[in-house]
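$ ./design --mode recover --in tokens.txt
reading tokens...
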């Protein structure tokens, strides 16, 4: 999802020759293959958008895979870029790097200020390691390797898997299928009270190119919208967009995750960037992408 948005943004801006490789061409957990690929291609800019990602269920079920694969991706690419002489690297992390009880909204300065949310600790540690790799490579080698920490993302090309997806694609699928079956209710995982912030992937792509245009970017910077809503409120929006008219129930026996994850985006806004895609517009477009994926039998379903 993120990589595709970055490619679209590069094409719309012009002036870029984009180099990409899917998993069939390059295994980012294979250090030798990554080093060889970068030495052969010699890119001038690398945006590290690849990651093993998922929601609470996936993170809780596969923590070893989440920490190993994301550590390997970060270490192989960042060191590979240094060896290949790549002058600019932008590493993409996640808002889950911040402590579970971080001040709200969360400033960049609260990193490592307390325990992480247990349900996604493995993923968060790997993303913190990638951020710190960039920070220390910049300090030691003088390379402009820096990071962006986006909030929860959604948009075209999302993962709509019924168990391993994030909250927006999961809800889009569940409410769509509930409507198709004629269900009278949909039950949400957890209490519905946690508050979350959602950024359209096209806004993140624009933010990446904005950060790459800065001569002296911060070591890491938050990228979000600056507002949030409860999961129950989000479900109401999704129900309206999908046309589901039944009841929305909650299951408090399931884990909620972090109570709130709202980013302080004052730093990136001060540098001249702001989000452009509103949640209602973005959700409607995401639902169209999901329906197209279903109709064509493509994408991550």
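writing sequence...
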């Amino acid at each position: 999802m993120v990589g595709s948005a970055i490619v679209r943004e590069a094409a719309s801006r012009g002036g870029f020759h984009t180099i990409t490789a899917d998993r069939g061409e390059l295994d980012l957990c294979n250090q030798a293959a990554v080093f060889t690929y970068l030495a052969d291609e010699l890119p001038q800019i690398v945006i590290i958008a690849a990651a093993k990602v998922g929601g609470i269920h996936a993170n809780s079920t596969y923590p070893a895979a989440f920490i190993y694969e994301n550590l390997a991706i970060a270490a192989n690419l960042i060191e590979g870029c240094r060896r290949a002489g790549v002058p600019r690297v932008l590493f993409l992390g996640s808002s889950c790097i911040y402590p579970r009880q971080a001040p709200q909204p969360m400033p960049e300065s609260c990193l490592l200020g307390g325990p992480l949310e247990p349900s996604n600790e493995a993923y968060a540690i790997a993303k913190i390691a990638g951020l710190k790799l960039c920070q220390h490579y910049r300090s030691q080698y003088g390379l402009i390797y820096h990071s962006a920490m986006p909030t929860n993302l959604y948009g075209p090309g999302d993962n709509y898997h019924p168990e391993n997806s994030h909250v927006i694609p999961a809800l889009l699928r569940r409410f769509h299928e509930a409507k198709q079956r004629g269900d009278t209710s949909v039950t949400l995982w957890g209490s519905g009270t946690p508050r979350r912030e959602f950024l359209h992937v096209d806004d993140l792509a624009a933010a990446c190119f904005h950060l790459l245009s800065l001569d002296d970017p911060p070591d890491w910077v938050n990228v979000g919208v600056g507002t949030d809503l409860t999961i129950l409120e989000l479900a109401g929006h999704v129900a309206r967009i999908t046309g589901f008219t039944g009841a929305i129930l909650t299951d408090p026996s399931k884990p909620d995750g972090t109570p709130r994850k709202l980013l302080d985006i004052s730093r990136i806004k001060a540098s001249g960037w702001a989000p452009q895609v509103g949640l209602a517009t973005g959700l409607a477009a995401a639902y169209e992408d999901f329906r197209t994926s279903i109709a064509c039998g493509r994408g991550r379903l």
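exit 0
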